[in-house]
Amino acid sequence: MSTPLTIITGFLGSGKTTFLKRVIDRYADIKKIGIIQNEFAPMNVDALELRRTGKTFDVLEINRGSVFCVCLIADFQSDLRAFIDEHHPDVVFLEASGLSDPIAVVEILQAPVLKDRVHLAKICTIVDASSFLLLQQANQRLTNQVRVADVVIVNKQDKAEAKAKLEEVVSEIRRINPLACIIPASYCDVDMNVFESEVQPVALEKRSALAAYKSPGRPAIGTAVVKSTRKISRTALDLFLAEQLPKSYRLKGHVQLDDATALMLQSTLGDLHLVPLENYIGPSEIIAIGPEIHPQNFSRRFRELATS
Amino acid sequence: MTGRELVKAAMRCEQVERIPWVPFVGVHGGHLIHAGATDYLKSADLILAGMDKAIELYRPDGLPIVFDLQIEAEILGCDLEWAAENPPAVVSHPLLLGKTLKDLHVPQPDEGRLAVTMAAARRARETYPNVALYGLVTGPFTLALHLLGTDIFMKMMLEPDAIFELFDFTKTVAMAMSDYYIDANCDVIALVDPMTSQIGPEQFRQFVRQPVTEIFNHIRKRGALSSFFVCGHAQQNVEAMCECKPDNVSVDENIPLDFVRDVALPKKVSFGGNMQLTVILLLGSPEDAQRHAIECMNVGGETGFILAPGCDLPYSTPIKNLAAVADVVHDPYQQQVIQTLETTGPQPDVLDMSDYGKTDKVIVDIITIDSEACAPCQYMVESVKAVTPQFENIVEWREHKIKHSDSVQFMTSLMVKNIPTICIDGKITFVSRIPPKEELIAAIQKRIYEKLRFRIRSQKGRLLLFARNEKDFAAVRTILQQAMREIGAEVEIVEIADEKKMVQYGVVNTPAVVTAHFKIKSEGTVPALAAVKEWIKEIA
Lengths: 308, 540
Known about the structure:
A: 308 residues; alpha/beta; Rossmann fold; Hypothetical Protein Yjia, Chain: A,domain 2; 12 strands; B: 540 residues; Glutaredoxin; 3 domains; 4-stranded mixed beta sheet; 47% helix; elongated
């Protein structure tokens, strides 16, 4: 059986550890939780804070420092496999460094050693509403983290200055990622149901399929990512999606088209949403999650269909 | 041209005869010699042993001494957390812990792990005069992050003067580091500033451009070449990076190579990259790595391009993947093969070839790119063509050009991986090598004998019944069938009335029974049941 893994990302101080505490409070008594931490704060306060909750959960701390790029997290695959094999968690939450690229983390989930063990459930990005607009100007990565998120928690609504900026922050997030589920919150106090159901809305007739996906006896689920700097035509993209959607429970990402425009796409059980994405410079990145997803074929097929 | 000369020429945007290849072997060098990252980065002997192995296996034109952006930070008081398969990570930031810039000094070449790194650089220079050596220096932005932590981003917006001052210090450190590597006779100083991917072009021009430009000017004055390494989503900054006037920019898979080429070359800046680290080099197959290398080389071209991974190679990158890249870099013919296969289209389904090669004739298949367009293919086809007439129609040859998808299907089905290849009756016999005439004849003859043996063996269970009239046929047939029934064995009975064949088998009187081994068992009489049973036992 494959364990769902949710990536929690956000800048240092945005509230990732607070969010994890909420997760532990909500689930530790009913599920076996695995937490993976990859953020170096002085003295590793984060892990200490989590332990103070007094609940039972397993933690894997990975020494990848203030991870900047793909190269430093590549070896994380063997650590993750060992962690899952040892603890058999029902769910895993991975707290990624504020400077890391979530897509690079997802790429690791494709590793053959992790096959049938773990798949991507969601990417959740937490932003501090009081500093987001300012920090975002200085830090491009923050924008990238918002762009790839399924859920964006606009945190620190308890602060007056954050509350005042809420509308502006939400509209900026909406501009970067038109399809994300945006949740304003104080102390990351959000309805955890968001992390149990898939991206809304899901048509009623598809609920049963979704239930099968989420049931304990679900089949092995794979994660595939294509990251490509090749540009693709709209026709070729449609063909790619027509081939991949039937195999995918979920499919999401952003694509550079050959007419110099970009699209954001998201699909849950075949419900496809495509929206234009403004001002995106960067590679096409698509993630697919499903029982018949083969990482190498997925990536190869995209490359075949895209022009160089 | 030596590899070192190739790298230098490419760096200067000169056209080269072969695209240079620089695998960024950092802690992966430890993997090559079975040493952990922690020991590796602390020992000149181990670093050198790792470089030795990398040079032997990957035949690089250039190689970094180490890929570790924490050397300066450690000397400046950052605490490190070490790992078995990664460079160390910075876990504390002195400027956050009460220190000020005045408390910090420019690292000296004999301090901390610099002593080890420089010793390795000097020794590598002596040992490898023909390989371009890269000295990697932590970029001023990344070193500033190590010293101050992520507060740096807020400070960039709120206290820019403090950041200018900090960058001025980290710039001085980078210049000193460049000097040490140049003194050790390294050819290329690579300023590695992955933090560049975290900011936009405005911030880059405001904070990074000036110190970095000064560093590159300094390196130029010292007569060395410079490269600006970034990784991550830094496409927005490529133009501004080129404005800093490095000799070269090197990027990872997040930035399209054609984009970098089109921005850099007009500014007389060479470029490098951008092989995918995770999906291709770490998780892919050697074939994936080769295809990808060709793709990069096609975009990069022979002027001002260096083939390299996007960043530091992961510790456990499979050796075979990088060796496969080396093969393709050094062998233009292999490049042609892979390119042709790539343009032929997607891999078709594999055919069931289990019955292939069982016909009467011996079939020689030659898998080529196209014998009219590639010399090795042409020689291979000609060698086969020259020997087949002497087998007088027993041997047929066919050429399969992989430009056509049905030929690719045939090739894949026979599990042929290299081109050109000769298969005899479906069996891979000569791979990428034109066999001498005698060897080819011997291989074909061997197959003819095999087939002959097989045919004789398969005739084992046969009895030939010769007769000149139906009455004799019926009499012997009845006895043969009864014998088979009684001993529970089955053999084939072939009835022959042809006089010519009788002569061939030496039969004069009929009815006669002859085994497949040409032994006449009885002649001119209907054999006894007991005797027939014995014959059948012999041959069944």
